[in-house]
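User: We ran a pulldown and think these components assemble together. Before we commit to crystallization trials, I'd like a predicted model of the whole complex to look at. Sequences follow.
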Amino acid sequence: MVSYTPEQLQQALQKCESEPIHQIGQIQPHGALLVVTADAAARVVQASANLSRFLPCAAEYALGRPFAELCGAKAAEQLQSLAATALSRNTASGKLAVASGSSSAELQAHVYLSNGGIAVELMAEQADNQETRLAELLLQMQDALLQIGTDREYLHYFDQVAILVRTLCGYDSVMIYRFDSEWNGEVISQSRIETAPSYLGLHFPASDIPAQARRLFALNPVRVVADIEAEPVPLQPAVNPLAGEPLDMAYSALRCLSPIHIQYLRNIGVRASMVVSLLQNGRLWGLIACHHQAPKPVSISEREAVTFVSRMTSAKLSAIEALEQHSHVTSANHVVGELLNYIFTSQEETILQRLLPELMQLLHADGVVALVEGKRHSHGLIPTAAQLEALLPWLSGRACANSFSCEYLAKYFPPAANYPDTAAGVLCTPLSAGLRNGIVWFRTEKPRTVHWAGRAEKGLVADAAGGYRLTPRQSFEIWSELWRGRSAPWSPVELGVANMLAVTLPEGLAQKSRLEQALKQ
Ligand code: BLA
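Assistant: Here's a predicted model for the assembly, 521 residues in total across the polymer chains.
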């Protein structure tokens, strides 16, 4: 292994994140792609080089011709109607009855708008009654997908989702993969054939899925690699004439995935994969990752079915969060209500001593410090006065306009490595200049052993320019790491409550001080 500094690793990561994967300009060969103008003529401006496998004409012939001339008036009408749906839903799929000369065929189409044109991806019709079978399966599983379970049933729910996706699409292995606050992931559920490796409970580093790839998941919930060994098919011309740059394929069903990622799949011993995103209130929460040891194209109906599963599961995740939020916000309102009750009758000291334990519990913290008009009030396990003397000014620099939170303070503020028994994790509302007002919550260390599927750093290689490049690691062998100095993570709901308190508490206290001023006059 090469030796490296954290800066070199960071630089290498930035290189991964700068690859424009949505403009790769190539598709997988199990379908064809046409881009047509968005006017009534629908003239072809780009076509994949394999067009003649799906339509009775070559890409060169198609370029510049109206879609109706190539595929017939009926298909042109169907395309316009799909494009109208895509206008409001980003993508649309359906059938196109293609007629050309004496031949006719029914093709599956996936349509999206891109660079001012209409992109249409064509695939052969799938096997008989596949659609009916998928619809029946989804109907059977509808109740399981809708039920709102308790915490205890949470993992059982994901087991059901993994089994459902495996039954729908027949992959060797289907995993539910959950992101942490630093974008590392953990496999929390897996349904697999016996010969597929178990990844249950293993963690994968954030660098496996760079930021631009995660962003694409918010737009397009399903990504397929039908066969890592299939020859990519280029688009002709390479530059989209409507945009003057490569076609934006964010919504594509056929886009070729980055060669770096294809190498990753090769290293992990997978021939085909499908990855489906899971969102919680619009934020990427996790993925359903499917692996197969043989090539495996995904039909448009299968894609629609798993998109439906992704939406249902995401809705469930959002509902779970909303319930959690409701109960937290109710408790937070109670604390604020108490404050307002006491504010006009008691001294600040009484208010805070009464409220600090509640404030602490509200965010499951082990200690809390409240700064009110420059005075410091505290409760629970907190750093010593001397430690706070250094920490608070640093925190006020981090939390100027917004709250700041982390579960591993020592990573950002090295002196904190000396006091993990009080401040391994910290959450603070914006601290006003001069540290006059704000609340800081502390969490103590929760040591744990993390089992990684291989070490990301093993992929670091020196490149010709004298820098470092990160390549997918060769081995996914379990590597265990003891995590010290970290607290339990802060949840988005807890952050939301802190933000709410950041507004209401100082306001209440300011109101009190205004009232006192008025009374004095
Ligand atoms: C993409 N990497 C991905 C994606 C996943 C993973 C899910 C999204 C694309 C997809 O397959 O749909 C990682 N896949 C996993 C993991 C599991 C899995 C963790 O099945 C576990 C079960 N990858 C690297 C390194 C780089 C890298 C070092 O390991 C960069 C130097 C890059 N990964 C990379 C890129 C993409 C990616 C560029 C985007 C691929 C694309 O969408 O074109």
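The mean pLDDT is 89. That may be worth checking against your pulldown data before setting up trials.

User: Thanks, that helps.
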